[in-house]
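Justification of computing resources. Each target in the renewal requires a structure prediction run like the one illustrated here; the chain below, 677 residues long, is used simply to show the kind of job we budget for.
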Amino acid sequence: MDEWVMERYELAKERIAQIPEEKTAEEPYRSFFAKEAVFLQQVIAVMDKGIQGKSLEELQKQNHELYQDILPENYENSYGNPAYAQKMLGEYGKAFTFLYTELHGVIAYAFEKKAWDLTVVLELFLEIYSAFSQEEIPTEKQVKEILVSYVNDYCQDMVEERIREAIDPENNFVVKIIMESDLNDLSYLYQSGEYVSENELKTAEFLNSLSQKEIDEMARTYTEGYRMGFITGRKDITKKKTVNVRYHLGFERMVKAAILQFEEMGLQTVIYRYALHAVNRRNQFRSGFTGGIANPQFDYDHRQDSALFMDSDFVKRKLRAMQTSYDEYAELAAVHGGPAVIETFGENPFSPVSKPESWTFSEAQQKLQLELDNESSQITNRYIKGDERSFTIIAYPVPEIGENFPEIFREIVKINTLDYKKYQKIQQTIIDTLDTCEWVEIKGKGENETDLLIHLHTLTDPEKQTNFENCVADVNIPLGEVFTSPVLAGTGGMLHVSKVYLNGLQFRDLKLVFDCGQVIDYSCANFDTEEENRKYIEDNILFHHPKLAMGEFAIGTNTTAYVAAQKYDIADKFPILIAEKMGPHFAVGDTCYSWEEDTPVYNPNGKEIIARDNEISEMRKEDVSLAYFGCHTDITIPYDELGSIRTIDDDGEMTSIIEDGRFVLQGTEALNEPFED
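Resulting structure tokens:
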């Protein structure tokens, strides 16, 4: 098969080399094909010759040339821009901008020497070029049919490879780069083919300025969090053989230390790149190893490219491919422990522009995507069982956060390593008070209109049961929250935040109205019209569910992080991982115990957390397809917008936990010390 692939590759390569000089395709299509053929020749040169022997300056120049067309300064005249593609190519614009995106994924395949992945995309390009080189050009429908056939023909192979590379430690491309490169020579950053911005360069430079002890301690916080996740979850880590590390280019010194520490635990590291083939891409979010984002608007413009081919046949085809692939790799899946994630933050906030020329799901396709997500989760959970796996997640800033980057970085290291015993005791005090009632009231102050009533589960045996998990630094770093899954019946009101960043997107004046624990109305102030604002929320918070439940209510206690955010004026750049610890937060979507509701969970004091279900997740007992949303988005009210958090007992008496943004419950006063400092 490899020989046959290489024969096809050589034929495709030769044909593409001829295109820039040919005149067979008519304008305006000829310009597209000539430009993309030149780009593909650059990629083919990487495939054939590699990058060995190139100086740092040569590698930087090459990296820029490969990504220059989608950089913000060039994007207005890029076929990757759906608006430009439609302007230049008319009715064919959407098909060609889809093709463009698939073509530009081949950069990674060339660096990884993935001949098959590269070849099938080259052949797709040639097939469409050939169609436009005929006397009678194809109709828009015929072009789309070629693209859809490509997706359907290769769905099985692409899904199978995606699943394999997520759980198979053999021949791991990124791990080899990390373990075999001289990380003091920043040329290594260009070996993966990812876009390298100043963020990645300066992050690597900064980590190289730290001592090995500092690097090892950073890695230890991260790897110990992963190990502790198994212990606190009462899961057996010795049954696992692999861990999936997801991280951002530039953190290789820390990741190398983590790989070695995971080896001490008996775990081999798997690192896979975020999805590039349209078959596997999902929204604009990058899951896996990634470099710099050359242009977040490009990613956003193509977040629903699968609208080209999303139909019931594709859903069945992909689910069948997942099932057969997991069957093939069942042994690898059974010993996979789950992800260990290093997030980054500090990039300039991104507010996307919605373009009517982009591919967008119809209402029917939205339902199909939800069905696909739901069924995919079920298949994955059958092979990588939720009650046997764990995870951890930690976050660090990148240099774009500002001139105080080194100082901020060290502050985040401090926040990630706060005294968990101190917080554990204080948080237990909060939990003990919360466990005396069934209702909690949360109100905003000033212009914040939040007014929520949360219904808690009934404790039938308070001596052995609790509603809230005491969250310290294990799977969810940094420490600093107590959380629960509310009862939906009776939970309701308005959640309001003046400004928040969710999944890298800014929301201004966000309002969600809950009734019976589910979102029934919503608005924000990002765009000029109510229609645009509602669609923005539907796309990026509700993910097209007609209703979405409140899956989590939590009280954040990490006032140290909050004060750091104010001190450096970076609250708008904090990831939700840290921001959720800086005030009460509410997650819409699945509960915190999604797919693991039947696994007992205990606090350090031995009490079992019984609030693992709500009325939606309980439906799994009758019909699992109704029980999960496949999303979980945390929304935090910062302390400076918070009026009060009060418990309400059966007699209507209130006990205050927070008043005017400060902790007032006896035994929690120490949480206010960072404010004073």
